[in-house]
Amino acid sequence: MNLIKLAGLFALLYSTSVMAIEPFTIKDIRVEGIQRTEPGTVFSYLPVKVGDTMDDEHATASLHALFATGFFKDVELKAEGSVLIVVVKERPTVASVEINGVKDFPKSQLLDNLKYVGLAEGRIFDKSALEKSENELKRQYIARGKYSVVVKTTVKDLERNRVAVSFNVEEGSASKIRLINIVGNKAYSEKDLLDTMQLTTPGWFSWFSKNDQYSKQKLSADMESLRTFYMNSGYMDFTIESTQVSISPDKKDIFITLNISEGDKYTVSDIKVAGTQAVLSHEEMRKLIGIQPGDVFSRDAITESTRKIGERLGEEGYAFANVNAAPEIDKAKHQVAFTFVVDPLQRAYIRRINITGNDKTRDEVIRREFRQMEGGWFATSKIKKSKQRLDRLGFFSDVNVDTSPVQGTGDQLDLNLKVAERSTGNFSIGAGYSSLEKLTLMAGVTQSNVFGTGNSLSTQINTSKLNQVYSVSYTNPYYTDDGISRGFDVYKRRTNATQITVSQYTSDTYGAGVRYGVPITDDQMFHYGLSFEQTTIGLTSLSPQRFVDYINTFGPTNRNELGTIGWSQDTRDSAIFTTEGVMQNSYIELSIPSSDQRYYKWTYQNQWFHPLSRSFTLMTNANFGVAGGYGGMPLPFFKNFYAGGVGSVRGYDPNSLGPRDINNYSLGGNKLAVGNIELLFPMPGMEKEKSLRLSAFLDGGEIFGSGGQVPGTDGMRYSTGLALTWFSPAGPLKLSWARPLNKQPQDKIQNLQFTLGSMF
C-alpha cells in the first residue's frame, strides 16, 4: 500500500524539502472527518477530480484551496492505491455570543455590528473575526469618549465542535476635555477663538450636549470653524500648523493643543468682472458682488457673490455656468484683487422630474405644487419655489431637490426630488390646569392627506367645560386644476360659560357652510364662503343685566346667514421648521341683512419669521380684531373677543383678560389686540433635530369693551417665559411656562400650559 501524507500548508509553503508524490491517476475521492460540511462542498473546492493525475503540484493546489475556504483548521491528503483520501478537521461553529456589562448601547445594536465583522451565532469561528469584534466594541465606546473601556473576551469549547463567545465590558467613565490650548494667536484672544468651537471643557450644560467629550469629527469641524473665522476676518494666509491630542495616564482627561499661524490681514484692492455679456451685463454682475474695494477680505463674501451670480444665470436657464473669483495677491501690501470670471456655457432645460419617497402621497399631489415644469428652461427661483410649496404642505418631514445632467447631452437636466413622508393623521388633545377649572381636555382627529390625495378631513370633539364641539370639515385644495379650493363644514357647538371665568350663559349653535379659496399668486389667496347658523342662548341667575336685556329684545334663538371674505399670504420656508417668511391673513365675517342679527367681525393675524443665525430665529405674532353691529343692532355678546391663555397671552387663565361683570366674570369685548415676540432656538445637543425647538417669549394683549364693573381689569397684560415645541407623531406639542409681568389683584393666573395638536 502506498501512503503519502502531506503534513499541512506551512510545510508545503516553507519547508526546504517536501516529500515527493509518485504521480497516480485518481479513480476515487473519499472525504473523512467532516461533521457539518457536505462532501459535495469539499469536492467543489478541490481543483482535481476523478480521472486527473495527482502529483506534487496538484497536491499543493488542493491544500491551498481547502485552507482558503476557512472551514477547516487542518487538512491532510492520503493515497490508498488509486484512491485520494481527504482528511479534514473542521473549525468550530459559534453557538452563542454574549455581551455583558453594557449600559450605554442596546445589546442588539452591538450584536448587529459584530455580524458585520464576521462574528455571529451559527457562523464558523474565526480568531481574526474575534479580534476584529473586540476592536469594534472598543471603537463604539471610544466614539463616545470612553477611552478607558476594557473588553475581556472568553471562548468556551462546547460539545459537537462548538464554542460559546462572551465579551465582558467594563465601560468606565467618559474622558473629559480638561484643556484646549491655542498657540500662536495674536489678533484675537483665546476666549474669542474658543467661542467659535463646539468642543469645550466641562461646564453647566456640557453634561447634556456632550461637547466636553473628545471626538475626532467634532475637532475637524472646529478646526474648519476656526479657519472660517479667520478667513472671514481678512486673514487669508491663516493655517493650522499642527494639532496635538493627548490623554492622561488614567485615560480620564484629554488635552488639546492647536498651533496656528494667523498671517497678515488683507484688504480688497480691486474687483473686476470678466466674461461674456450676452446674458448678464458687467454692471448687473457688479451689483450681485457683495464685497467692494477697501473692504476687509472675507471668504464667505466671495463665496456668496459667486453663488448669487450663478443663481442669476440659473434664472436664465444656464445651469452649468462657471463662476470663479480669481485672486491676485500682493503680499507686500497685504492686498488682494479679485476678477470674477463668468462663463455661462450652454443653456439647459429640464427633461424629467423624478420623485421618490412618496409611498403614500400621490405623484400628482406633488407635481401640482411644482413651478419648474418638465421641458421648460431651468430656473433656480422656480425650483426653490417648488421646494418651498412642498415644505409648506406639511406632508413631508424632509424635501431634497437636486439636479443631474442627462448623459449624452449637453443641455438637459433631470430634476430629482426625494421626500420623507411624515404622519399626516393625528389624534390631538389639549389641556390646561388652574385652581378654578382644574383640568380641561379637548380631542380631535385630523387627516390632512386623505388617502394621499392632498385633501384634508378633520373631526373635532371638545368636551371642555367651556366648549363642547362636534364638527366635521373637508377641504379639497385643488377643486379645480388651476388651484381653486373648496371646503365644507358641519358643526355643533355648545358654550357653557357657567363653569369658568367667562360671564354666565350657555349657547347651542348648529351650523353648516361652504368655502372657497382662489389663488392670486403662488403665495396669496382670496377666500370667500357662506354658512348658516342657528344659536340658542340660555341665561342663569348670575348672568349680567346686559345679557338679559339682549335676550328680552332679540329672543333666545336666532338664525343667521353669514358671509365671509378673506385674504391670506404664506411665504414661510417650511410649515414645520420655519426659519423665515411671513404668514398673514385677514377675514371679515358679516351677517347678511336678512338674518335675525346684524353684525360684522374683522380679524387680522401676522406672523413674521426672521433668521438671526443658523440656530436662532426671531418670530413675531400680531392679532387684531374689531367687531360691531350695524343697522341699529348691537354686536351679539356671544360674538365678543376673548384673550388669555395658550394662543394669546400665556400665563393667564384662558379667556380671562378684559372687562368683567360685578361677579368678576369676563365679559369679552369688541376689540382685540395681542402681540407675541418669540426667540426660537434648537434644544442643546439636538441641533439637527428639526422637530424639536425651544423658545423664550414675551406676550402682551388686551380686550377692549364697555360696561366692565370690576376696577383694574382694563389695560394691557404682559407675560414672559419659556416654551418647548415638538412636532410629535401625535401632532404638534407646545408646552409653556409663563410668568405675568404686571399681574393685577383681579387677574387669574395659569403658569403652566400645554397644547397637543394645535399651534398659534
Plain-language structure description:
With 760 residues, the chain is α+β, with helices and mostly antiparallel strands. It folds into 6 domains: 9-90, membrane protein fhac (Ubiquitin-like (UB roll)), CATH 3.10.20.310; 93-170, Ubiquitin-like (UB roll); 176-261, Ubiquitin-like (UB roll), CATH 3.10.20.310; 267-343, Roll (Ubiquitin-like (UB roll)); 349-421, membrane protein fhac (Ubiquitin-like (UB roll)), CATH 3.10.20.310; 425-756, Beta Barrel (Porin), CATH 2.40.160.50. Helix content is 17%, strand content 42%. It contains 13 helices and 35 strands. Strands 18-19-20-21-22-23-24-25-26-27-28-30-31-32-33-35 form a 16-stranded antiparallel beta barrel. It is extended and about 125 Å long. The termini are far apart. Mean pLDDT is 85; it is low at 1-19 and 432-438.
CATH architecture label of the largest domain: Beta Barrel
Number of separate strands: 35
Main pleated-sheet profile: 16 strands, antiparallel, barrel
Highest CATH level, the class of the largest domain: Mainly Beta
